[in-house]
Amino acid sequence: MTARRRPSAADHWLLGVDSGGSGVRFALARVADDGQPCPPEFTHATKEPVRTGPDGIDAGHLLAQVAPVLRDFAGRGEVVAACVGAAGMASLGADLRDRLPGALRAEFGVPRLALAADAVTAYAGALGMRAGVVVAAGTGLIALGTGLDGSGWRRADGWGHLLGDCGSGAWIGRAGLDAALRAYDGRTGGSAALLARAQAVFGPAPTLPGRLYPRDDRAAVLASFAPEVARCAQDDLVAAGILRAASRHILEAAAAVRPDPQAGEVALTGGLFNVGEPLLGPLRAQAPQLLPGAELLAAESEPLHGALRIAAALSRDELPLPVDGTLLAVD
Asked: In 172-289, where do the E strands start and end?
C-alpha cells in the first residue's frame, strides 16, 4: 500500500460559502505564503436559496448544495478551514451550528469551520480583520462594529423592512412609492416624477397594492424602485429629500455601533451604494455632523471574500473577530 503524501502548503485550501436570498455561492482558494487567501481558483453558484424550516436554516439542504462542489474537488488538496456566511444566521442558525461542523468533518475532513451571519462576512470582506464599522446595505440594512477589544460585536438595525432596515433599498423604494401615491391622490408630499416612474415600472397607480401585497418578496420589489428614486433625485426635490433622509439613517446606524465615537474607519458595502452620487453625496455632506472624525471607505471586497478571509484566519488560529456563538461561531 502506498502511503498517503502529506499535503504541502500549496495543497492547503480554504472554502468560503455565501448563502443568501438569491442562492448560494462557493469559492475555493489556496492559502498564500502570508496566510491570506489567494484569488479563488474554483467558484460555483446556485440560484436556489437554502430552505428555512421549523428548525431554522436547513443544514441538510445547505450540505446538499456544498457536497457536490467538495466531491468534485476531492484529490486536489486538503481543505484546512471553511467559513459559511448565511443570511439569518443569528436568529435561524441553530440547525447549521448543530449539524454542519460534524457533517463536513466526517465526509470531507474539514477540520475547522466558522459559521457567520452574512453581516460578519460582509464586515470581513469590507474591512478585513481591523477594528471599525461596516454598514451593509442592499434590500435591507445592518450596521456592525467592533473594537477587537473583547467587547464583542455592536449591531444596529437589520430588523427587516416592516420593523426597520431604515435607509435601505426597501426603505427608499417604499418612500418613493409613498410619494408617488401622494401625487396620485393630490396629497402634500407627492412627486409627479416618482408617480410617472412608478406607473412606468408597475402599471397604473391603483393597481400597485394588488401587485405588491400578495408577494412573498415584497422587500425586494420595494428595493427595486430605489434606483428610480435615485434617478429622479437630480431634478426632483422630493426624491432628493428621500435620499437625504436615507443617508441620515445610514450614518445614525453607523454611529450607534462605533467603537470609538470620535474616530475610526466606516466601510460601506452592498448593492445599495451602487446608485452612486445621489446617495453618496448626502452621506458625505452629513457625515461631519452625524459621524465626526470617521473615515468613510468603500468596501475592500465582497462577503464571499470575507468568508475566505475568516477561513484563512481560522486556519492560522488567529481569528481576532468576536466569536459570540451567534453572529460568529467556531467549531
From this structure: 264-269
